[in-house]
Fold:
Amino acid sequence: MVENIVFLSNPKWLASSIMIACYLLLFSEKVNRAVITLLSAMVMVVLGIFSQTEAFRAIDFNTISLLIGMMVIVSITERSGLFQFVAVWGAKLVKANPIGLMVVLGVVTAVFSAFLDNVTTVLLIVPVTFQMTRKLQITPYPYLLIEIFASNIGGTATLIGDPPNILIGSALNLSFMDFVLHLAPAVVIALFALIVGFVLIWRASLQATDKNRAAMMRMNAKSSIVDKTLLRQSLFVLSLVICGFVLAERFSLSNGSIALCGAAVLLVLYTLKDKHHTRDEKTEEMFNLVDWTTVFFFCGLFMVVFGLEKTGVLEIVGQQFVALTNASVKRAAFLVLFSSALISSAIDNIPFVATMIPTLKSMEESFGGREAMMPVWWALSLGSCFGGNGSLIGASANVIVAGLASREGHPLKFLGFLLWSVPVMLISILISAVYLYIKFFY
Structure:
């Protein structure tokens, strides 16, 4: 029994009430999300649900380290112009054909999202997209749509591609290759279906004149590379980090340690030849580019979920889930897949996955252990990541693209987006269901 509860005698109801209030505030977007989770966590500390020491122990610092390390690496790499170069080079590869450009941007977005976070990917790709569509004098709308969908689909393929995967991978100590081997095939099929569908729908209406295509072809991809030395350094460190993720299990290294080590090495290379004052300024500038709101949001969220775990709320939910599925891994996998997709399309998938992880962990013994229950974990990843395509607020990348589009005079309307997002989400989830059935239950 939890002691020192001030206002309510039942700690389960108290923790649940705080969590519900936290979720409602997150959904309303009236208060900064990091402030909401930190405040909710501190309310739990003040009311005695857990101590301050327990609160800090609840934070998964492997996840936090992975996020910070990759944010620093990506921020420095961006300065080289690599990402813009790839986008322009791809467009010229297809001779500035509008449909070919759509395919290229979809594939590039998906690949970048597998190794960067989704928000960073769309922040890099969308401005280049507007530049290209202006030169071709065509609507950017289909390109923005495919970039949103491809970012959420591509991010599902790897450990570092989407925050839900980072949470799941850290909680279960899964390797980079675990995600690639189990999820990449479903991602490739879903991405192929997305691209084919968009090509068939838009091929008749997306046309550009020869004059505009010639103007597009005059764009110099090499001019996007503003620092060749930094490009070489970034590619070197990125390669080492990815190799580190692949080999981490053999050397008993955590993914967070690898990412932080890569960030530190790249910071050294980035500032090595600078004078003391300049070196400090550039280092501080890179640290300022870390999304600290997301970092503290995760910290608060870990604490709040721990409150539900400590009071036994998640154990009760797990027991009800076991009873509902009759302890069948197959039923559990498909229930988690479809429910997580539906919920993730309505609310941010990060708090949902953070809550589901300890819930599913409490059920593992009833389902025959960790190994037997792995299809359920992969279903959670696929459902929550693909479910982010279900609405304009389903994933952070969606909201970012909508904001950029609005500033460019091409707003994405919520209901208009649903006409595209719901079919894309349903098709990708159906693909996932077939994939899971064939891989684990056939």
Residues 1-7 have pLDDT under 50 and may be disordered. Residues 414-441 form the longest helix (28 residues). The two ends are 45 Å apart (CA to CA).
